[in-house]
C-alpha cells in the first residue's frame, strides 16, 4: 500500500460541483489501494476576495491579522471536501495547518516551514482515514497562525509529501501539465512529459505560474517525485524529477516571461569600495527585491548602475534611494517602465556554447532591442520592452523548435 499526497488548486475546488469532482478523484486513488493525504487551496478567487476586503478596511492591514483572515479561505475548502468524501462513503477528517503539525518560522505573510510533526496525520492514516489538510498555512512555536505566501499550498503539499515519505505528490490544477511556454498566450506551446527539478525551479522563478518556486525547492531537496496534472481531464501530466529522462538532448526546454518590470538607473555613483554594498543593503533592509544588476564605470571615475525591480516597487525604491542620497552619494536617478523579462531555460545549455548568442540573434532579427541580460548555467534572461514580450516569446519558442 502506497501513500500519495494529492493537491488541488483554487480552480479545481472553485464550486460545490468541483469539490464533488475532487472527492471522486480522491476516492479513485483510495480504490487503487493507496492511503491519501489531500491538500487544498481556498475556493476559486476567495483569497483575492479576502485581500480586497482587508484593503477596504485599511490601506496597510496588520500582517498578523492578514494571516488570520487569509487562513480562513482554506478552512472552508477542507471541511467541504471532508463532507463530500463522507457523503461518498469514505472516512475523512479535515485538519488546519496547526492540527496537521505544520510549524513555521515566526514571519507573517511569507513564512517558511521549519518542521512538520506528522504524528496526528499518521494516527489518522493508520485508522484508515483520508486526511485533508489546509494548504498555505502553518503555526509558529508561539501558536500564531502564519501563511506561506501567495500560491503556497503547493509548498504545503510537497513539504507534507517529504515529511510523510510519500511515494508521490500529485499537483492537480487547471492545466494539463507544464508547457514549453504559457499555452494561454502561445498556440504552439507543447506539454512536457518530464522536466528536471532545476529546470522547473528556473521556470517557476522566471514567471511560469504553474508551481510555487518554494515547492520545487522542497521537492528537489527531499527528492519528492512530483507530477503536475489536470483535475478535469484524465490525461498524463508532467513528471518533475531528478533528471529529465526524455527529451534530454534538447538544449532549451522552455520559455518563461514576466511583465511589469522597471529598470532603475543610478547615475554618477561615487566609485568607492563599498558603494554597491551600501545601495543594495539599503534596498534589502527595506524589503525591496532587486533582480538583474548592471554596473559600468564612466571616464570621470564614477559609476552608473542599473537594476531591475517589479514595477509595483518603483515608488518605494525611488523614495528609499532619495531619502539616502547623501549616504549613497550619486548625482541622479532615472527609471524606465513598461519592460518585460523573457527567459530561455534548459539544462542542456551548460554543455552547449552559443545558446545566448543564438537568443540575441533571434531577438535582433525580430527588431527587438535588449535592455538588460542575465545568465545562469541553465538560463538566459533578456529584458525587453513590454510591447515586444509576446513577439519575443513566439520567436524564441519557434527558433528553438519547442513547438509541436
Ligand atoms: N489560497 C492561497 C492563494 O490564493 C494559496 C494557494 O492557493 O496556493 O494564494
Ligand atoms: Mg497555485
From TrEMBL:
GO biological process, one term: homoserine biosynthetic process
E.C. number: 2.7.2.4
InterPro entries: AceGlu_kinase-like_sf (IPR036393), ACT-like_dom_sf (IPR045865), ACT_Aspartokinase (IPR054352), ACT_dom (IPR002912), AKii-LysC-BS (IPR041740), Asp/Glu/Uridylate_kinase (IPR001048), Asp_kin_monofn (IPR005260), Asp_kinase (IPR001341)
Residues that, per the record, bind ATP: 7-10, 173-174, 184
Domain ACT: 264-347
CDD domains: AAK_AKii-LysC-BS (cd04261), ACT_AK-LysC-DapG-like_2 (cd04923), ACT_AKii-LysC-BS-like_1 (cd04913)
Pathway(s) annotated for this protein in UniProt: Amino-acid biosynthesis; L-lysine biosynthesis via DAP pathway; (S)-tetrahydrodipicolinate from L-aspartate: step 1/4; Amino-acid biosynthesis; L-threonine biosynthesis; L-threonine from L-aspartate: step 1/5; Amino-acid biosynthesis; L-methionine biosynthesis via de novo pathway; L-homoserine from L-aspartate: step 1/3
GO CC, any one term: cytosol
Keywords from the named record: Amino-acid biosynthesis, ATP-binding, Diaminopimelate biosynthesis, Kinase, Lysine biosynthesis, Nucleotide-binding, Repeat, Transferase
Reaction catalyzed: L-aspartate + ATP = 4-phospho-L-aspartate + ADP
SUPFAM superfamilies named among the record's database cross-references: ACT-like (SSF55021), Carbamate kinase-like (SSF53633)
Enzyme class: transferase
Pfam families associated with the record: AA_kinase, ACT, ACT_9
Function per UniProt: Catalyzes the phosphorylation of the beta-carboxyl group of aspartic acid with ATP to yield 4-phospho-L-aspartate, which is involved in the branched biosynthetic pathway leading to the biosynthesis of amino acids threonine, isoleucine and methionine.
Subunit description: Tetramer consisting of 2 isoforms Alpha (catalytic and regulation) and of a homodimer of 2 isoforms Beta (regulation).
NCBIfam families: asp_kin_monofn (TIGR00656), asp_kinases (TIGR00657), PRK06635.1-2 (NF005154), PRK06635.1-4 (NF005155), PRK06635.1-5 (NF005156)
PANTHER family per record: ASPARTATE KINASE, ASPARTOKINASE 2
Protein name: Aspartokinase
Amino acid at each position: 500500500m502506497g501513500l500519495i499526497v494529492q493537491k488541488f488548486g483554487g480552480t479545481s475546488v472553485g464550486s460545490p460541483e468541483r469539490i464533488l469532482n475532487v472527492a471522486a478523484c480522491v476516492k479513485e486513488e483510495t480504490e487503487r489501494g493507496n492511503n491519501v493525504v489531500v491538500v487544498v487551496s481556498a475556493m476559486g478567487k476567495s483569497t483575492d476576495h479576502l485581500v480586497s476586503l482587508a484593503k477596504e478596511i485599511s490601506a496597510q492591514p496588520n500582517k498578523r491579522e492578514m494571516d488570520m483572515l487569509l487562513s480562513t479561505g482554506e478552512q472552508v475548502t477542507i471541511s467541504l471536501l471532508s463532507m463530500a468524501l463522507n457523503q461518498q462513503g469514505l472516512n475523512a477528517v479535515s485538519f488546519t495547518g496547526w492540527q496537521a503539525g505544520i510549524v513555521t518560522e515566526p514571519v507573517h505573510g511569507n513564512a517558511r516551514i521549519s518542521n512538520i510533526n506528522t504524528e496526528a496525520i499518521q494516527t489518522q492514516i493508520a485508522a484508515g482515514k483520508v486526511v485533508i489538510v489546509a494548504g498555505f498555512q502553518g503555526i509558529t512555536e508561539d501558536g500564531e497562525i502564519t501563511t506561506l505566501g501567495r500560491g503556497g499550498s503547493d509548498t504545503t503539499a510537497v513539504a507534507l509529501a517529504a515529511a510523510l515519505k510519500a511515494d508521490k505528490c500529485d499537483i492537480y490544477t487547471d492545466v494539463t501539465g507544464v508547457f514549453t511556454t504559457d499555452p494561454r498566450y502561445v498556440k504552439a506551446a507543447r506539454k512536457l512529459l518530464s522536466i528536471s527539478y532545476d529546470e522547473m525551479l528556473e521556470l517557476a522563478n522566471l514567471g511560469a505560474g504553474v508551481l510555487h518556486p518554494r515547492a520545487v525547492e522542497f521537492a528537489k531537496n527531499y527528492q519528492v517525485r512530483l507530477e503536475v496534472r489536470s483535475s478535469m481531464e484524465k490525461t498524463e501530466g508532467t513528471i518533475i524529477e531528478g533528471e529529465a529522462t526524455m527529451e534530454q538532448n534538447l538544449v532549451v526546454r522552455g520559455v518563461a516571461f514576466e511583465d511589469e518590470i522597471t529598470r532603475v538607473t543610478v547615475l554618477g555613483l561615487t566609485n568607492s569600495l563599498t558603494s554597491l554594498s551600501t545601495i543594495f543593503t539599503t534596498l534589502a533592509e527595506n524589503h525591496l527585491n532587486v533582480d538583474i544588476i548592471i554596473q559600468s564605470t564612466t571616464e570621470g571615475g564614477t559609476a552608473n548602475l542599473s537594476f531591475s525591480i517589479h514595477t509595483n516597487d518603483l515608488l518605494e525604491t525611488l523614495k528609499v534611494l532619495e531619502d539616502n542620497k547623501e549616504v549613497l552619494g550619486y548625482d541622479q536617478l532615472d527609471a524606465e517602465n513598461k519592460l518585460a523579462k523573457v527567459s530561455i531555460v534548459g539544462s542542456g545549455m551548460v554543455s552547449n556554447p552559443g545558446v545566448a548568442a543564438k537568443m540575441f540573434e533571434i531577438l535582433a532579427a525580430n527588431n527587438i532591442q535588449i535592455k538588460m541580460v542575465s545568465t545562469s548555467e541553465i538560463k538566459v534572461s533578456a529584458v525587453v520592452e513590454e510591447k515586444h514580450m509576446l513577439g519575443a516569446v513566439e520567436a524564441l519558442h519557434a527558433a528553438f523548435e519547442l513547438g509541436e
